Amino acid sequence: MANTILVGAQWGDEGKGKIIDVLTEGADIVVRTQGGNNAGHTVFIGSQKFVLHLVPSGILRQGKLCIIGNGVVVDPVSLVEEIDGLQKLGIKVDGNLLISETAHVVFPYHRELDEQREILKGKNKIGTTKRGIGPAYGEKAARTGLRVIDLINPPRFELLLRQKVKENNDILKAFGAAPLSFRKVHETYRAAGDRLRPFVTNTVIKLHEATRRKANILFEGAQGTFLDIDHGTYPFVTSSNTTAGGACTGSGVPPNRMDRVVGVMKAYTTRVGEGPLPTENAEIADLLHKMGREFGATTGRARRCGWFDAVATRHAAMVNGIDELAVTNLDGLDSLDSIKVCVAYRCGSTRLEYVPNDIEVFSKCVPIYKEFPGWKTPTNRVTNWARLAPKARSYLKAIADLTGARLSIASVGPARDQTIFV
Ligand code: GDP
Ligand code: IMO
Ligand code: MG
């Protein structure tokens, strides 16, 4: 399979979990390299639904090594819960999961600060998942964070945590929020550290050994291109590099060991949380929500929905170097007479062919649409490209062409076999 970076080409929730699961068949190792348990990756195996938050989706295929890389922020209590949940469902985790010793740890004060900052922002809030992601990465950048290597060293951890709780309680007090009890945090985190210790290792060395053995590594992106801290719709973004470069920094595997980049995108657009979404459309949101679709896998929030935005996906192809595209949720459009695709933006009297950096300008962009005829037939049982309705094929080819990458997978349902290799 070669070393593959998989990224979300839109605003997250593109169906990465499903495509990762499909591609894992040809991989030896699956690595998460950024984000934390803000992610929610859904995988169906038969009728059994799994939602992965921190553990790479590759864990669901037997005998695949899964790695939580150095670029991830780990909430150890939530990770222990996730491991327990997987084991209850009969998934083997011991021996199949490694955690980087240099990944940063998310603490309750990060979650509390996340919440308090959102409250303070009022109507300008980001709409975060409240998992403490921003404050945890903030501490990493400020060089004041604690890492997994500290968590699993009890005397050092006690000392460092005592200082951190004191320091953060002072900040929480300034927000008018209740202080945290060092004893409680210490107790739960010590227990989680003890539980996770057997999984913790120098994952950079493990990955380099694997590349020397010519193992196939799949880098599982979380979030999406427009939530990237550098390339997204700042400040309405997450706090990590969700674009392809993040796979290198977040794993320690260098760029010249990467062979291809797969971009995952929906056949339409969704976004959860605040920030601009030029093609947002109430009608398509209504249609998808009535089908019971597009509710967040992590927070359960209804996702905002809109038409496919080719200006945005073209930008994503550019900053990620996307070679191949996997388009998911084609079946969501099955009932429509006509389907719109945004091919450019109009901002005042100017036509824009790219995503503007100024958030105020972007918020005012009005999509310029091209219309495609709907195929008006169910696609969810189709497994072969030649059998797909010609109008659906034309639509897929058009959005791939507009994005500027080769279409390699079309997904027509959440299950493994609802996948068309093009
Ligand atoms: P991720 O965060 O990118 O992994 O995506 P999520 O799991 O948060 O959201 C994608 C949703 O779409 C999940 O409910 C998937 O089960 C579902 N899904 C993925 N591909 C398809 C598809 O082709 N058709 C349908 N109907 N659902 C899909
Ligand atoms: P997956 O991996 C969709 C969004 C939040 C919010 C912004 C910042 O499942 O695609 P954060 O909690 O990260 O500080 O929130 O980013 N967000 C996601 N949206 N999918 C995700 O992950 C997301 N992770 C974060 O809704 O707008
Ligand atoms: Mg998701």
CATH class of the largest domain: Alpha Beta
Oligomer: single chain
Q: Quick check: average pLDDT?
A: 97
State the fourth-level CATH superfamily of the largest domain. Answer: Adenylosuccinate Synthetase, subunit A, domain 1
Largest sheet: 10 strands, mixed
Q: Cofactors and ligands present?
A: guanosine-5'-diphosphate, 6-O-phosphoryl inosine monophosphate, magnesium ion
SS content category: alpha/beta
Poorly predicted runs are none
C-alpha Rg (nearest Å): 21 Å
Can you tell me the number of structural domains? 3
Amount of helix? 25-40%
CATH topology name of the largest domain: Adenylosuccinate Synthetase, Chain A, domain 1
How many DSSP helices?
13
Widest sheet, order of strands: 9-7-5-2-10-1-11-15-19-20
Task: Give the N-to-C terminal Cα separation.
Answer: 16 Å
Question: Hey, roughly how much beta strand do the residues contain?
Answer: 15-25%
How many strands in all? 20
Shape: globular
Q: Do you know the CATH architecture of the largest domain?
A: 3-Layer(aba) Sandwich
